[in-house]
């Protein structure tokens, strides 16, 4: 029994895992601003539908890349929407435990997703240097989204701690 307690404590001793809300443990992936896994033992899961970018201005033309910005700008726009949605639910970005990212490669990138641009936007919200409360994350290149100018769609799962 004594060894089992030591095995449970080792990740915390070496800084590999960090507790967020009660019942949530983030197991950081070294060298990346994401968690390798997020363990939820208490709390309620909150699933947010995929968010897509909004136009930079209401009168900007529909379906034109310049109306939505590049991948980095679209990522920031989408994560701001997610942050606003979570705040309305009395949650924050550090309550996100899982993120799925869908990226489209457009003509401007010869059909290849702009992962670097995504990471530049993502890192403004999730900085591995500043926190261990990082979501587990997957990123996929998809053929297209509903609007030909969208390059980013993100859906998340957050956890609301039980009280």
From TrEMBL:
<dbReference type="InterPro" id="IPR006175">
    <property type="entry name" value="YjgF/YER057c/UK114"/>
</dbReference>
<dbReference type="Pfam" id="PF01042">
    <property type="entry name" value="Ribonuc_L-PSP"/>
</dbReference>
<feature type="signal peptide">
    <location>
        <begin position="1"/>
        <end position="21"/>
    </location>
</feature>
<dbReference type="InterPro" id="IPR019897">
    <property type="entry name" value="RidA_CS"/>
</dbReference>
<protein>
    <submittedName>
        <fullName>RidA family protein</fullName>
    </submittedName>
</protein>
<keyword id="KW-0732">Signal</keyword>
<comment type="similarity">
    <text>Belongs to the RutC family.</text>
</comment>
<dbReference type="InterPro" id="IPR035959">
    <property type="entry name" value="RutC-like_sf"/>
</dbReference>
């Amino acid at each position: 029994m004594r060894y089992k307690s030591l095995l449970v404590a080792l990740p915390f001793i070496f800084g590999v895992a960090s507790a967020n809300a009660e019942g949530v443990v983030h197991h950081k992936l070294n060298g990346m601003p994401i968690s390798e896994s997020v363990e939820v033992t208490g709390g309620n899961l909150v699933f947010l539908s995929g968010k897509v970018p909004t136009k930079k201005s209401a009168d900007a033309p529909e379906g034109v890349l310049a109306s939505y910005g590049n991948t980095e700008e679209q990522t920031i726009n989408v994560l701001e929407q997610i942050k606003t949605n979570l705040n309305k639910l009395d949650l924050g970005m550090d309550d996100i435990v899982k993120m799925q990212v869908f990226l489209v490669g457009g003509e401007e990138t010869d059909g290849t997703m702009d992962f670097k641009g995504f990471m530049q936007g993502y890192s403004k919200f999730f900085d591995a240097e500043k926190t261990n409360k990082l979501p587990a994350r997957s990123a996929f290149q998809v053929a297209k989204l509903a609007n030909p100018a969208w390059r980013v769609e993100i859906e998340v799962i957050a956890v609301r701690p039980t009280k």
